[in-house]
Amino acid sequence: MTIFPENISTYGQEIDRLFYTISALVAVAFVISLFVLLYPLFNNSAKRVKKATYFTGAKRKHFRWITFALVALALSDFYFLYAEHGAWVTIEQTQVKPDFHVSITGRQWNWAFTYPGLDGKLYTPDDIVINEMNSELHVPINKNIVVDLWAKDVLHSFFVPNIRLKQDCVPGRMIQRWFKLTKTGTYDIACAELCGLLHGKMRNFLVVESQEKFNGYIDSLYKKNAPALTMTNPSN
Fold this sequence. Notes:
Structural class: alpha+beta
CATH class of the largest domain: Mainly Beta
CATH topology of the largest domain: Immunoglobulin-like
Strand content: 25-35%
Number of domains: 2
CATH architecture of the largest domain: Sandwich
Shape: elongated
Order of helices and strands: HHEEEEEEEEEEHH
CATH superfamily of the largest domain: Cupredoxins -  blue copper proteins
Strand order of the largest sheet: 3-2-1-5-8
Largest sheet: 5 strands, mixed
């Protein structure tokens, strides 16, 4: 049982595990903090409590509780760092061999998808750009998908809940991420950064499909853009 949308990425389970671990430890700290705050209020009354006195907290018996809290906080932080190390290495530091490379640009108010053209390379004159609201990003299943994330105008945040991928996109900077998906279907692509008046309408879709269907989609893009590709293809 999970409270999240269905995970379809190879590293999504690691993200979910981190969330539950952090939530459990924070919940324990929250309960303890509430107890320390509320117990004196209900346990004491004007008749049972002596007149309040001022103390500096410099004595060892007072200072030890501060030390205990600081040590507990430091240990929990170090544990979080240890627990997330594997996920960090997998997602942030692993250089995967791309099976498909695509560029994604956030703009007000949609995501623009740039596919490599006939030369198979991005950022050449024959690239195919899909720049429409509610358009689809097609990718093959069980392949390493490398995405270059850009922002054209303001801060955006590329967010696909089913992949457990959320990455801010900064104008003037390219940020590269990757994913490998294990289930076909159509999934939401949202913007998780307030980016202007129609931020709530900034919705596109991720279509995960078999290699055969993906090849057919790419071929249809080539045919649709055939005149432009013929004029700009460097091999001609």
